[in-house]
Predict the 3D structure of the following.
Amino acid sequence: MVDAVKNQTNSDSSTQLADRIEDSERLDEASGSMTIDKADARIDTAALGQYLLGTWADARIAARALTGRPEMQRVDGQTLSEHRDTVFHQLGLLVEHGGVHKAFPKSLGGEDDHGGNIAGFEELVTADPSLQIKSGVQWGLFGAAVLHLGTQYHHEKFLPAIMSLEVPGAFAMTETGHGSDVAAIATTATFDVGSQEFVIDTPFRGAWKDYLGNAAVHGTAAVLFAQLITEGINHGVHAFYVPLRDADGQFLPGVGGEDDGLKGGLNGIDNGRLHFTNVRIPRENLLNRYGDVDVDGTYSSPIQSPGRRFFTMLGTLVQGRVSLDGASVAAAKVALAIAVRYGNERRQFTAGSDTDEEVILDYQVHQRRLIPLIATTYAASFAHEQLLTKFDGVFSGATDTDADRQDLETLAAALKPLSTWHALDTLQEAREACGGAGFLAENRLVGLRADLDVYATFEGDNHVLLQLVAKRLLTDYSRRFAKADVGVLARYVVEQAADRTVSGSGLRTLAQNLSDRGSVARSVEQLREPGAQRALLTDRVETMVAEVAGRLRPGTKASKQVAADLFNANQSAVIDAARAHAELLQWEAFTDALDHIDDEGTRVVLTWVRDLFGLGLVEKHLAWYLINGRLSPKRAQAVTAYIDRLIARLRPHAQDLVDAFGYGSEHIRASIATGAEATRQKEARDYYAEQRASGEAPIDEKTLSKKQKERI
Amino acid sequence: MVDAVKNQTNSDSSTQLADRIEDSERLDEASGSMTIDKADARIDTAALGQYLLGTWADARIAARALTGRPEMQRVDGQTLSEHRDTVFHQLGLLVEHGGVHKAFPKSLGGEDDHGGNIAGFEELVTADPSLQIKSGVQWGLFGAAVLHLGTQYHHEKFLPAIMSLEVPGAFAMTETGHGSDVAAIATTATFDVGSQEFVIDTPFRGAWKDYLGNAAVHGTAAVLFAQLITEGINHGVHAFYVPLRDADGQFLPGVGGEDDGLKGGLNGIDNGRLHFTNVRIPRENLLNRYGDVDVDGTYSSPIQSPGRRFFTMLGTLVQGRVSLDGASVAAAKVALAIAVRYGNERRQFTAGSDTDEEVILDYQVHQRRLIPLIATTYAASFAHEQLLTKFDGVFSGATDTDADRQDLETLAAALKPLSTWHALDTLQEAREACGGAGFLAENRLVGLRADLDVYATFEGDNHVLLQLVAKRLLTDYSRRFAKADVGVLARYVVEQAADRTVSGSGLRTLAQNLSDRGSVARSVEQLREPGAQRALLTDRVETMVAEVAGRLRPGTKASKQVAADLFNANQSAVIDAARAHAELLQWEAFTDALDHIDDEGTRVVLTWVRDLFGLGLVEKHLAWYLINGRLSPKRAQAVTAYIDRLIARLRPHAQDLVDAFGYGSEHIRASIATGAEATRQKEARDYYAEQRASGEAPIDEKTLSKKQKERI
């Protein structure tokens, strides 16, 4: 099965070398178990599609059956109020068709199925992101807050009407003055022992609740977050169940608000502002799982530390981030399904022939624009499946330790920024790759992009989330140090010293340069080893974290202001480290997934996709690898050359790769991705062929000689 | 004036070194003529604002007076048809208030003022991009085609009604099947000698005209591009004046079409599709400046080469690209004015204090996100002014040689992609930097971004334009070679050999590493020299062009297919080279502009901005500089460290830098950039201060000791 490596003379071009190596490369080198020739590798799209559906395949399939129905889908061109009405009506259909109650307790008609609930929920994005987010507000935030922050009393009293949509509700956490910094919200809930009521107040304009879905029109109640004050002590942010409107839709006494109006997208949701003046609610309306007030005004909580209590309460809301991660992956899949189909049918410019125009996905730049996005989408999809599994483990109680909860939050905080930004990048690149057609609403890309825009900043601003991840990395790092025996410490010292040597004199770079001389072949081979990719990606994360930790260390003994300044001076580096970590997580998830692909041809192609993703990350951060002496200039060049090679090799599989996403025309719904373009191309070619055959084609002036021209 | 450089011990941190150098740096080192201390440097915003208005300041000021009027401005939330009606009405107001006829001949009531026309036109983007583009369709494309492609007969017969908006018209060039490849459009105009008419036909669906502004509703005529066929010969694409609709708005016989419907933005423009079946127009409706058909059907043209003739005709339409470049810069300015103002008022999280929250622009990452965008906006603004000057020179006839026209087209093709993408990046970053508030339509960022999205692909797809630029660079390069004496050739050979040495053994890298040892100081100083920045940027362009040219050379003697494959295999490199060239042009324009800044303080600050832009480019392409041995790892690190330093230094000037853009609240029109945020912050702070002063503030549970807690 093994061809001899072709014996060619040396060449300076690393591209040529990479080609040569790849041409002679045997698959059994890439994976011991493979026995087919790479030229024969094909994706089994049905099997891969099934694998991509993941653990909660049934929930996804059921949700896709629903999202494929026209009455569940976005109608372009509706006014703000029409769109809001449509989506509200669709929420009713969701209740009718089931599926949105999966996460609620069986005792109340739910299924206690947390993973399946999110899997189905995130699929709604292909029908209309407004539908996804509005149902997320109703059941994933408003309802889930009652479920997770309330106790049996609240479950029995409030959940049935929430589940049935009889009571549409808002999740009143964010204020005009405070979004990311929830602990600093200013709305107060002061306990009045005399009347056994909490008194809700908005002390100033900045404390208005803002951007709340269901607040402008439909919401008749809210879970409201406010500073709980009793006996003169502020016990921090707690959640309260607060009625908003009467049966006629009029605000109850003391409640006021306004409409947030038109937004950049998600206009099927009635976001609005709320304010409260001396609004009284019964003591029992405090959602009291993590903090309670007794009849005499005494505060109690199962969690002593106010900080930990706050983060525990917020932690129950992680599912929002989980589902945005999944919905973003779904949107990227739809975008690529549209752009790749169109790129495979659309023709523009003749290049290698006088008459036949090229399919635009045959252009190198078009491939460079779209195929790496396919690779990242696969990585994000596999990473999301791991996140969903982790989430289900925690919320089902199967694996629900403190450490599990922390890991879940860190994982969600790491992946959500990457996938939401990736969806925006993908939708935009797909839009531009489809030219003017991509700008028409009928081709979906602009609408999806407009809707998903805010995914980057809500449910946790992406930068703020990455900073949380970085803090966790730094904490873990300092713990390793605290517990470290001399050996571990010594290893770090040696590594640091080695780094310094590299920066100081370039000695390691030099050594690698010399050893690389004439051995680009080996360097390319190494790069496609998963071990080499893992080492490069892991090394970068560890080095960055260690460097930042080292630079922040003086702050641990400094004043608050000095420590803050020091942290701020390193904030970019902190966030870069978190991003590197998240990228590594995606790469590991992709690599894990490869082990579960049974079909050889599929595994071969997907391994190339994984390599493209991994080496794409290395290329993106190439300057870092060069500066830090991890790659020689020669090897760095080989990275790009090999990426070009991988892209060319994946080009014939592009359609299969997006077909495996499993979305049908009822989900994609873009005129340019229906085959209309291929039909048009054929009609034009047939027309010209017939014209030539019949001798009726006009002569092209360009083909006339000067003499012929003069004669005419 | 010169302090001694502080004598500090060596440190490994290049950041610290950079700080030290900068602290001791004297301004008279940066510019011989400066006499003030950099700590005192302030921007004279009024003077800088005046300079930014450029040569056609009067036209801009007049246009801004108009765009500041509410009746000229976008009304959010209108339906498609309301928005179209509004914009059409606004076009009428433009006629009424003058300003849109500047480019037309004085004999017809115009001013023959081409630069002033574009300057005013691009300012319309701040009122509503739909207004800018719809007026661009009417007067910049439809009218300009009659002006530039027609002759006196057409000017007299058609222009008055076009100028007055009596005849709204479409520019019918693009077809569903062909956008970028205009030469391949399929609509035919066949001359019928018997009736002395051209017969317009759409042979198949792909040949429908598409995406045409004014085509869906308002257009009663069009300038139509079609293959001119007479006496059995196709003379290529020519333009024809074709009536579309009667006085009642009904299509004329043989004309049909449909509405493009909702788009991602620019919905004030009625884009649509048109098709023609045996539509007859008089022979005289051929816009015959560059090609004519005699009564007997004989074709004639002042330009013999059909290829050159085609590009000459298209070349008259370059003003569209020029104005998109300027409008994109204007939109980026508005976006930054919003985000910087908000970033300077909005507070979030306490960091260095227990009570006072930080202004978000004081966070390093927020600065890193916004301040480099300010620098690029200045670069793009100065580059646009040079483009506009070049454009005016050519169109006024003052400097109108073939070479001038080619330079103008190359310059427009280079700058339009960079500025349109930059505007989208800036609008998006500004939107995210404003969080949820940025997503509200009332804060303008999402609307502007949605509208400007298509700027990246219309009037020349950005990638296609960059490829044109690259072809020009490659042509120039091969000409230099063709004429080169032995000396020049030898220089290239030496350079190429040097490159090979670097890649092959890293010898040059090594040498630089060694010489850099202990002299980061000097390397930082060198980087802020304009000469060093120019050398780095120019070297990269020249090297990339030479490398690509070398790789394409075998194609010159190969078959068409082989040459096409070779070009395609290098298409990414080709486009990267063009982009590098365009970036260099922006840097040069910025550097030129500094010479014209009289106020010292302003020049000092703007020099930092220019350095940030220049070094930002170097950082963006750092891997290239490292791989190609142009920067040592040490020096590469210094680039990033110095950028951090520049950003921190520019932070206090951020507001001045955006104030100098000169847009008033009537142009910015974002609720979050009106001072409302500062008012809200003050209200909140005053509330808490009063509460503390009165002793009514609840005690924070976090501040209680364990003992106190137990007591409670």
Q: What stands out?
A: Chain A touches chain B through 125 residues (CB under 8 Å).
